[in-house]
Amino acid sequence: MEIAKRKILLVDDNFELAEMMGLFLEHYGFQVSKAPNGQKAIEKLVKETPDLVLLDLNLPDMLGGRVLKRIKEINDDTAVIIITAYGGEQVAVELMKAGAEDFISKPFENEALLNSVKAVLKIRDARMEDKQQERLSSLEKFFPFLAHEIRNPLHAISGALAIIQRRSNLQDEVMAKSVKIIQEEVQHLSGFVQECLDFVRPVAKSRFVKVDVKEVVAVAINILSHIFEDLSKQIHIRQEAEPGIPKIFVNYEEIKQAFLNILKNSFEAMGEGGELVIQMRFKTEPAPGWAEVIFRDNGSGIKKENLRSLFQPFFTTKLRGTGLGLAICRRIIAERHNGKIEIESEEGKGTTIRVELPIPQTAGIPGGQSP
Ligand code: ADP
Ligand code: MG
Hints:
Blueprint: E1 7-11, H1 15-27, E2 31-35, H2 38-48, E3 52-56, H3 64-74, E4 79-84, H4 89-97, E5 102-105, H5 110-167, H6 173-200, E6 208-211, H7 213-227, E7 235-241, E8 248-251, H8 252-269, E9 274-283, E10 290-297, H9 325-335, E11 340-346, E12 350-358
Parallel strand pairs: 1-2, 1-3, 3-4, 4-5, 7-9
Antiparallel strand pairs: 6-8, 9-10, 10-12, 11-12
The structure holds adenosine-5'-diphosphate and magnesium ion.
């Protein structure tokens, strides 16, 4: 996979110097854009969302401090290195208090520039990771509360609906249709609440069991065929399991959930029917060995620009998606089971999801004891 280049915006009215710095930074793999004044800088900032701005203080149209303020207002995550003329350190220090991450004084060596850029990007990344963590932990508190508040009325609605169904004349088409809509919406909301909870649920190591990966796949497919009663008639599923795959040692419910999320997406991508192949293999390398499950559908596929966002919580391309399915998968498989999940896809052709789960060390040896 191609790694996205880090974006740097160079704000300097000295054309030659900017040109030189640009070439130098590009040589080190950065994507560089340039602005000769404050106004242009702000325009580019909004359009290009750079990771880092190199900001010369001597601009023809605006004071450096103003530009810095605007940069931070537009996107607080943008890192800024101030470039000062000889003797301007005093101002630079003031600007560091105002949010700049570093400063360098002209004339400077390229080496010094590069070091500063790298250091500042590192700080920025760490800061963004912290923010993400904070966001997640506030979700962790909020979701259970939300779930509780939504579930109670949902149960009441379902109960009342059952009474309506029993007591009224569902031969009446409009009535029957309305009841069906309520039912579907209730189900959608329950599903949403459940996904939110799955996403934040803490690890339960105690529930780890030895289980056959084929069995988990089979159970997930079975559940799925109930969820997509009609569609499942138009989707042909082929399961190919290599013989002798050792048992995995996992939280059964969680892995079932992960497989179910993957399969659901495949079904949703094959709305007109299609073919789903599930291959299961035993990979001995690298140690301790892995159970590999590959889900391959020939559905709608995924746009290239979306590939990198798939595992982000709330990323969805569906009208009624939650965008939590794959985020949950990653939590379960990678974070809680030390496994791997990867997606390859081509728009219009289909999608392949590869899951690897570690086999416990002793499982491959006949008579070996699992933890
Ligand atoms: P949701 O299903 O609620 O949208 P997910 O996290 O399960 O959320 O999936 C995120 C997005 O990834 C989907 O909206 C879809 O665009 C894409 N996606 C995932 N799996 C597939 C697949 N098998 N085929 C096509 N697109 C997929
Ligand atoms: Mg999904």
